[in-house]
Backbone:
């Protein structure tokens, strides 16, 4: 077993984690800010960042391959069905005092795995929703199943998860809102589409975007008693106004 206690040492998950920990802990870059962390973790796929925090005013992020507006009515109903299941998992995470991110993995129209963030409960920063779901799937299925499987997740996968998904050969990813600080599928890096490594996977963002954002806002106005130095949030108010899609949607970087 690997150092994380959950994944085989030679598995894509463990390899990805070791690379990320080497950079984030060894260099201390994570503590210096997410933009620098994203820059330094770009070596995972030898790619250039598509946008960083310093670029927000001119280029918030690169676009996903597709947006939900491009779907026909039948496809929209199909994809919203499974994103609703992911939202349900995120809501469960919220009431469990976890960052409200949830996901489901779908093969042939059937859910084969579910996950939600478990980083607070386990005190393990790698227990993202995707990692939790994949661990469960691999206990019942071979790795090859991911080539015929789609992921629905409420928030764009982070750099770590995006790399893991590519190494496992996920067929496609659908997400709710963009991850503008740690996104690995367009929010900060384009790990999903770099042509030099593995097989790329298509990404569609913006499905139930508003609900995904509101769940995150609800969490961040709560107190996190497990944080090293909890910030006093009792005076914070939940903002319910969300910018329209055409204003918020990331712009293509030059």
Residues:
């Amino acid at each position: 077993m690997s150092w994380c206690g959950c994944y085989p040492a030679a598995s894509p998950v463990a390899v990805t984690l070791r690379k990320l920990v080497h950079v984030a802990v060894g260099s201390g870059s994570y503590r210096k800010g997410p933009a620098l962390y994203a820059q330094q973790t770009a070596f995972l796929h030898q790619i250039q960042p598509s946008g960083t925090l310093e670029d927000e005013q001119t280029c918030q992020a690169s676009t996903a391959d597709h947006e939900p507006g491009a779907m026909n009515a039948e496809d929209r109903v199909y994809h919203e069905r499974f994103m609703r299941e992911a939202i349900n998992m995120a809501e469960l995470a919220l009431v469990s005092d976890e960052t409200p991110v949830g996901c489901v993995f779908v093969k042939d129209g059937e859910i084969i795995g579910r996950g939600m963030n478990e980083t607070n409960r386990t005190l393990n920063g790698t227990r993202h929703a995707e990692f939790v779901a994949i661990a469960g799937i691999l206990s019942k299925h071979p790795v090859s199943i991911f080539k015929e499987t789609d992921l629905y997740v409420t928030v764009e996968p982070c750099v770590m998860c995006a790399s893991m998904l590519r190494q496992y050969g996920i067929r496609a990813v659908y997400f709710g809102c963009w991850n503008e600080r740690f996104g690995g599928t367009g929010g900060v890096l384009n790990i999903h589409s770099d042509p030099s490594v593995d097989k790329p996977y298509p990404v569609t963002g913006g499905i139930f975007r508003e609900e995904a954002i509101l769940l995150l806002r609800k969490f961040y106005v709560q107190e996190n008693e497990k944080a090293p130095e909890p910030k006093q949030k009792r005076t914070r108010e939940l903002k319910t106004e969300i910018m329209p899609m055409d204003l918020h949607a990331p712009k293509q970087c030059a």
The longest strand covers residues 110-116.
